[in-house]
From TrEMBL:
InterPro entries: Amidohydro_3 (IPR013108), Metal-dep_hydrolase_composite (IPR011059), Metal_Hydrolase (IPR032466), Metallo-hydrolase_Enzymes (IPR052349). It holds the Pfam family Amidohydro_3. SUPFAM superfamilies: Metallo-dependent hydrolases. Transmembrane segments: none annotated. Residues 99-363 form the Amidohydrolase domain. GO terms for biological process: cytosine catabolic process. This is Cytosine deaminase.
Length: 405
């Protein structure tokens, strides 16, 4: 067999955490990146060697993964008579808007969301879909499943049910049978009356059908809301296989130190992923007094320090839950840096929107060594601070065309 020719791309930066411990990746350390000459073997990454220069003109990074979105709700704010409020006000306004959710409306808005995610370099996106009161699937579910066949992005859906509904085994079973393999069973957990029964059923149903789990949990600063610990307890009791992703976990930050540490320890032992969603939480939480007041935000640093895999997502885009934004995980990371005090070096945090985000929704992330270029993006940047601040980027496969010019 003919050996694949090696091509050289000078002055490339690779996030240090990505290359750490890998043989064949050597360069000059500059800020949060390793700088050198990238070796390509065909359309795969062969390694990094020291180059003549220590400054990079291009940054290679894994394709972002949007792990938490709501394509059924996005881009609706301009037709609502909504002038702000807390989570319950947003729920009410969004419920009223559902009368407009025809097939054409859903397709148009979701296409806009997917186009944004593609432009943001995403390789995959998980969207929740409000399930509603009936056990039969809502219109958005079938429309988006069809769109998942047509879009270049990997579009994964999570059925967003109420945890009280899942406490009914017949409801849980009927819903789960309408979730194809590769998609997720999701639920909203916030001071419901049958939380433990519902979560137990969610785990049982997901195990029976081999589905991933995804919870919206404790979206409040009120520490009496602690669905997160019930989820962790049941995950430990059942030894559930498959990714469990918990979004928000806002009340965790309001817990007394020893309670918070106890919960985080359980999350780490259960291998539960936590997705922080700063946009929606900053907009909806902490509205009881005058602004600025304490806002609800996931305690990302502490979670990570205690061994929990943390992810950062976009959540709502231009709807009643968040009236601004676009589907762009890099932008979500930029906001999380400010909202959650994520300190440099930023290569420690990049996995939260790339490789770890992929793991959290059950996608495999190839190791850098020998990985296909199609899994990566190239930014006009010399380090991650420039990327996170909004540098332009493109698919890394364009490197091949640039080399032949
Ligand atoms: Zn959400």
């Amino acid at each position: 067999m003919k050996a694949m020719a090696t091509q050289l791309v000078p002055d490339v930066a690779i996030p240090c955490s990505l290359a750490e411990g890998l043989r064949g990746f050597v360069g000059e350390c500059h800020s949060d990146c390793l700088v050198g000459t990238l070796l390509l073997k065909g359309d795969r990454i062969g390694g990094l060697i020291r180059g003549d220069s220590t400054s990079a003109t291009k940054l290679l990074f894994p394709a972002p993964v949007e792990s938490h979105a709501h394509l059924d709700k996005c881009h609706t704010i301009d037709r609502m008579q909504f002038t702000g409020g807390d989570l319950s006000a947003a729920l009410e306004a969004q419920r009223a808007d559902k009368d407009n959710w025809t097939e054409e409306d859903l397709r148009t808005r979701a296409t806009r969301g997917l186009t944004e995610a593609s432009s943001a370099g995403c390789k995959a996106i998980r969207s929740h879909v409000d399930w509603g009161q009936e056990s039969s699937a809502p219109l958005a579910w079938s429309v988006f499943l069809e769109m998942a066949q047509d879009t270049k992005l990997h579009l994964q859906l999570a059925a967003l049910t109420g945890i009280d509904q899942l406490a009914d085994p017949a409801f849980a079973s009927k819903v789960s049978k309408q979730i194809p393999s590769g998609h997720a069973l999701g639920s909203f957990v916030l001071n419901h009356t049958r939380t433990r029964e519902g979560i137990l059923n969610a785990f049982k149903t997901a195990a029976d059908r081999g589905l991933a789990l995804d919870f919206h949990v404790d979206e409040t600063t009120d520490p009496s809301s602690n669905g997160l610990e019930i989820i962790a307890d049941i995950a430990l009791e059942t030894g559930h296989k498959g990714p469990i992703l918990c979004g928000h976990a806002v009340s965790l930050a309001s817990q007394p130190d020893e309670v918070r540490k106890r919960i985080i320890d359980k999350l780490a032992r259960a291998g539960i992923f936590i997705v922080s969603l700063p946009t929606t939480n900053l907009y909806l939480q902490g509205r009881a007094g005058s602004v600025p007041a304490a806002r609800g935000i996931t305690p990302i640093n502490e979670l990570r320090d205690m061994g929990v895999q943390v992810v950062i997502g976009t959540d709502n885009v231009r709807d009643a839950f968040c009236p601004v934004g676009r589907h762009d995980p890099v932008r979500a990371l930029e906001l999380a840096v400010l909202a959650s005090h994520l300190d440099p070096p930023l290569d420690l945090w990049l996995p939260a929107i790339t490789t770890t985000a992929g793991d959290a929704i059950g996608l495999s992330s190839p190791s850098l060594q020998d990985a296909p270029l199609s899994e990566f993006r190239i930014a006009d940047a010399s380090d991650l601070s420039i990327l996170v601040s909004g540098a332009a980027h493109r698919p890394a496969t364009t490197l091949l065309k640039e080399l032949t010019r």
